[in-house]
Design a protein that fits this description.
The complex is a heterodimer of chains A (113) and B (116).
Chain A lengths: L9 E5 L4 E6 L7 E7 L6 E7 L4 E3 L3 E6 L4 E6 L8 E8 L8 E2 L3 E6 L1
Parallel strand pairs in A: 1-10
Antiparallel strand pairs in A: 2-7, 3-4, 3-8, 5-6, 6-7, 8-9, 8-10
Chain B lengths: L4 E3 L2 E4 L5 E6 L6 E7 L6 E7 L2 E5 L7 E4 L6 E5 L8 E8 L10 E2 L3 E5 L1
Parallel strand pairs in B: 2-11
Antiparallel strand pairs in B: 1-3, 3-8, 4-5, 4-9, 5-6, 7-8, 9-10, 9-11
Classes of the chains: A mainly beta (113), B mainly beta (116).
């Protein structure tokens, strides 16, 4: 099952390099943000999250940076591996309850050996 | 590790027919969601469900859509009279429902709906 389109921005990197994927979110009052990874034919898989009272959070090989001034999120992947190849979506939780997620458009990450 | 499951993986139907998409959320989760993703587009929120009622729905979720939790494990999305534009991947998600704001939604693998 295809879950990605023909016109997604694509980031191509060499295996072992660091990757940076960017996302602009829409609501300045959103208080929670998540990065998801989506492989072909699969559902979004949680990678890392961050609250609006933080500007950086680190996980295993991944770091999320939040710049509320310009409503920008980035996902940094260290030592990118072929298994990291996927589409990456940022999602925001707008105010008014802990319910729906608003997804960004997605970026395709292609890792070359 | 517990995961959200969905059936069927692929559903083909004729325009005007009713379809029911099924989901089994993670067992101790309390909040349930449906999202859809039209080919080439981003994931879109449809509806959220808590305590046996809809807590929020989007403009997409019109009278042709309904959700139900018929028992303690299943969560279904029904489309009464499918249209061509309903063709999409439909994802179910669930979250624990703790008080902490960072309560992640976990997604199922999706059902591909094709309306002919």
């Amino acid at each position: 099952g295809e879950s990605v389109g023909l016109h997604l921005p694509t980031l191509s990197v060499q295996e072992g390099d660091n990757s940076i994927i960017n996302c602009a979110y829409s609501n300045s009052a959103s208080d929670y943000f998540i990065w998801y990874k989506q492989e072909s034919g699969k559902g979004p898989q949680f990678i890392i999250d961050i609250r609006s009272n933080m500007d950086k959070r680190q996980g295993q090989r991944v770091t999320v940076l939040l710049n509320k001034t310009v409503k920008h999120l980035s996902l940094q992947i260290a030592a990118t591996q072929p298994g990291d190849s996927a589409v990456y979506f940022c999602a925001e939780n707008p105010p008014g309850g802990y319910n729906k997620l608003i997804f960004g458009a997605g970026t395709r990450l292609a890792v070359h050996p | 590790e517990p995961e959200v499951t969905q059936t069927p993986s692929h559903q083909v139907t004729q325009m005007g027919q009713e379809v029911i998409l099924r989901c089994v959320p993670i067992s101790n989760h309390l909040y349930f969601y449906w999202y859809r993703q039209i080919l080439g587009q981003k994931v879109e929120f449809l509806v959220s469900f808590y305590n046996n009622e809809i807590s929020e729905k989007s403009e997409i979720f019109d009278d042709q859509f309904s959700v139900e939790r018929p028992d303690g494990s299943n969560f279904t999305l029904k489309i009464r009279s499918t249209k061509l534009e309903d063709s999409a991947m439909y994802f179910c998600a669930s979250r624990r429902g703790r008080l902490a704001i960072t309560d992640t939604q976990y997604f199922g693998p999706g059902t591909r709906l094709t309306v002919l």
